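hey
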């Protein structure tokens, strides 16, 4: 199980500083949607430049204009870019084609998708599928990452699966039952008093549970 550190609502330099403190315990670094919206492709470029040996995920949440958006993310240094699963088939196909041409990866965000839609998405078998509990669902809807318990659908058994949204040490045990390939962690690390220690605690939790992939 890989740890993806989500960097949101920060300056680029703040994001780099936090990632450096967590670096030893994380695998992938996510340039969050808020960084991309505020600072553009510079945020991806600077973070990839600071961490050339880490996978960098551009959480651009493409829903249209796929060729352009995925292209500029990859040009800026991203290894993975995200597309919304509720996008049109034309958008999804385009994203998938671009990843193949660039020899990169796509992450399909399953936010607000139905099981019927998810089953159709399973054809993109080289993508990472992200079960995502949104920020608004957490803050306004009162949902927690315990909602993930029954999320893994049978048609994703052979695909890479990620989980995101409200992940903390308390919910890691239930998440590990899903055996996700990637667990995406944001404020539980980025807002911790001791970032290095917080990141290490997640890594140790994964290793202690014997769910390392």
């Amino acid at each position: 199980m890989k740890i993806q550190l989500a960097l949101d609502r920060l300056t680029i330099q703040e994001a780099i500083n936090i990632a450096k403190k967590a670096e030893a315990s994380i695998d992938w670094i996510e340039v969050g949607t808020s960084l991309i919206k505020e600072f553009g492709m510079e945020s991806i470029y600077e973070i990839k430049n600071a961490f050339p040996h880490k996978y960098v995920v551009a959480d651009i949440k493409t829903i249209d204009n796929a060729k352009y958006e995925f292209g500029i993310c990859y040009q800026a240094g991203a290894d993975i870019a995200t597309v919304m699963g509720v996008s049109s088939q034309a958008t999804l196909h385009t994203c998938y084609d671009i990843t193949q041409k660039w020899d990169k990866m796509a992450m399909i965000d399953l936010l607000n998708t139905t099981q019927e839609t998810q089953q159709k998405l399973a054809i993109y078998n080289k993508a990472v599928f992200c079960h995502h509990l949104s920020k608004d669902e957490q803050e306004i809807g009162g949902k927690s990452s315990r909602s993930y318990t029954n999320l893994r659908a049978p048609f994703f058994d052979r695909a890479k699966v990620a989980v995101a949204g409200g992940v903390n040490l308390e919910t890691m045990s239930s998440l590990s039952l899903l055996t996700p390939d990637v667990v995406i962690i944001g404020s539980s690390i980025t807002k911790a008093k001791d970032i290095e220690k917080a990141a290490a605690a997640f890594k140790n939790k994964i290793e202690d549970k014997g769910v390392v992939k």
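The longest helix spans residues 89-102. The longest strand covers residues 55-62.
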